[in-house]
Amino acid sequence: MGDPGLIRTYSARVSNLEREPREIRCAAERGAGGELLEGRAVPLGGPRAMSVSRTLPGAHRRMIGAWCFLDAYGPEVAAMRVPPHPHTGLQTVTWLLAGEVLHRDSLGSLQPVRPGRLNLMTAGRGISHSEESAEATLHGVQLWVALPEEHRAGPPAFEHHAELPVLEGAGFAATVVLGSLGGAVSPATVHTPLTGAEIAVDGTGEVPLDPGFEYGLLLLDGEVEGLARGPLAYLPPGRDGLRLSGRGRVLLVGGAPFGEEIVMWWNFVGRSHDEIAAFRKEWAEGEGFGVVEGFDGDPLPAPVLPGVRLKPRGRVR
């Protein structure tokens, strides 16, 4: 993504820092799938900011399982500085292929994350956090998982997992980041049936799938047959295996189709316009999200709400 020798200040990772965030709409189910979800370039954090490719939410498909947000970035030389900002109703997943990022949150967590290790933050009823790094090559993905009704107002939590299970087969080795894959189960907490895995492809093999899940497949690096850098390939439910051939790394996300309607705006996942407006008001007034200690700077201000009411939507248009 651009000249690797150009140093940029990357001021967004597990946050949506768009200055004018749009309502993220979802509507009724349409068609069987098989589509490519083209990413849109989103510059984050100012004129010298790094650009990310956002494939979820997409123009037609807004979620895959409970996965509701996916940004891919790098490899690019960058210095990250993400001011404290809030989240509700979701889990944030930090997964790096290159670089190191320091996480701070309002629970008092202070945790660097490195490639192959998982930072998982559960916002529940409300949490705030910041992230920073020195100038270095950064390459990774940021993802959100929507929490179901029975868990979305629960207590916030943070987990770091340095050891994750690896499912090995002919031609591949899959690190199971979240949920399960082929009998390998991540130790990270999930609240809906999920799969999140980084698959190293070296040759030809077939990765086992759950036929009740829908999946998304993103090429991270290298060359894998049938995949190009950029778009997220959507696979509808019904498959019990996925043939991969080549040499490279692939991100696999999936889960049982999420049946609830949600409202996504800025860094909040809620169920109604009034709820989102209340979250925004609490953050603006310094209430409800705790304090991130140790960050040298002011918290991120909340954008202005749009002039129309936000509506809860389903997972596809």
UniProtKB/TrEMBL annotation:
CDD domains (UniProt xref): cupin_pirin_N (cd02909)
Gene3D superfamilies in the cross-refs: Jelly Rolls
Keyword Methyltransferase on entry: no
The Pirin N-terminal domain, residue ranges: 52-145
E.C. designation(s): 1.13.11.24
Keywords, comma-separated and alphabetical: Oxidoreductase
Pirin C-terminal domain location: 206-286
GO molecular function terms attached to this record: quercetin 2,3-dioxygenase activity
Homology family: Belongs to the pirin family.
Protein name per UniProt: Quercetin 2,3-dioxygenase
